[in-house]
Design brief:
- With 303 residues, the protein is an alpha+beta fold.
- It has two domains: 6-138, Arc Repressor Mutant, subunit A (Orthogonal Bundle); 182-299.
- It has ten helices and nine strands.
- Strands 6-5-9-8-7 form a five-stranded antiparallel sheet. A four-stranded mixed sheet has the order 1-3-2-4, with helices on one face.
- The longest helix is centred in the middle third of the chain and has 17 residues, at 122-138.
- It is elongated, with a radius of gyration of 20 Å.
- The two termini are 32 Å apart.
């Protein structure tokens, strides 16, 4: 049984501090995190299906946020619903997140994927912060970091096992995985051969040469081999120039590729390198950071 209450979070004003205080007061918090039970301990009265079309989640509350009701899209997979509930709890707990005049937050699916920006856009900033909170609450860094470090090489099989353990989607797990895995790793989400989005730590993994909306390169492992839905491919070395900008005459670090074909034409592609190349601007930037700055980057990857 949980003992935490909102009074324990009174001094927390950032997503990271909120999660830190929750873990401090609930050191034995189970994995997967019992998100609905936690919500009810923190003055959420109900968690009910959302009836407004086009939205993934919502929060009904008053200006003083004395209590609230969380809404979720019941048509979404369970793992996404859990992230949505955690996201809306973040809106409820963050002191700076003020509901609309109607006393609500309504969040679309793209809001759940907002990871950066928002300094000049107050609403976007709130969505980014709610996502940071949800990610770190459902995948508590002290435990997640240990699980990610297991194994000699980055592997989609490991990512899938972690997603199952924490009861989050593979994509949500992948966003955190690329931050905490020691090796440079990128996760590319595709559908019907088109790049939808990618996740990487820009301090470790260079920018992809294939932009969002472009077709997957012909020499990618996704296209040059046949794949079975739900079965991760073997890890294969790929010419770095397939996915990355490689200067003529420069020797690029080896690039490894692995594919997980999914339903409805979706696929996850994991790209990894043995070590960050000294030729990459991002790697140079990390090399110039102090150990304290690098540690802060690992602890608070989305800041």
């Amino acid at each position: 049984m949980m003992n935490i209450s909102r009074i324990d979070l009174a001094d927390a004003a950032s997503p990271e501090r909120l999660v830190l205080e929750i873990l401090k007061h609930e050191p034995q918090l189970a994995i997967p995190v019992p998100i609905e039970e936690l919500c009810l301990r923190l003055d959420i009265l109900e968690i009910v299906p959302l009836t407004t079309d086009g939205y993934e989640g919502g929060l009904l509350t008053s200006a003083d946020k004395f209590n609230g009701t969380i809404l979720f899209n019941e048509a979404s997979p369970r793992e996404r619903r859990r992230f949505t509930i955690a996201h809306e709890l973040g809106h409820f707990l963050m002191p700076s997140h003020v509901p609309s005049a109607e006393g609500r937050f309504l969040c679309k699916l793209q809001d759940m994927r907002a990871l950066k920006g928002g300094e000049s856009d107050r609403r976007l900033k709130m969505e980014v912060e709610a996502n940071r909170f949800a990610s770190q609450l459902l995948m508590p860094p002290p435990k997640f970091r240990v699980d990610v470090a297991v194994g000699n090489d980055p592997d989609i099989r490991q990512l899938s096992a972690i997603a199952k353990k924490y009861d989050v989607s593979k994509e949500a797990a992948g966003r955190a995985y690329v931050k905490f895995r020691e090796e440079p790793v990128a996760i590319v989400v595709t559908q019907n051969g088109k790049v939808l989005r990618d996740y990487r730590d820009s301090l470790k993994f260079p920018q992809l040469s294939v932009p969002t909306g472009a077709m997957v390169p012909a020499h990618s492992l996704l296209l040059r081999r046949k794949h079975e839905i739900g079965v991760p491919s073997e890890i294969d070395e790929t010419d770095a120039g397939v996915w990355l900008h490689v200067e003529r005459g420069r020797q690029a670090a080896p690039l490894f590729e692995q594919v997980l074909l999914q339903r409805q034409g979706f696929a996850l592609i994991m790209l990894s390198r043995e070590a960050a190349s000294g030729d990459d601007d991002e790697a140079d930037e990390e090399a110039e950071m102090t150990s304290a700055q690098r540690l802060k980057r690992r602890l608070y990857p989305d800041r």
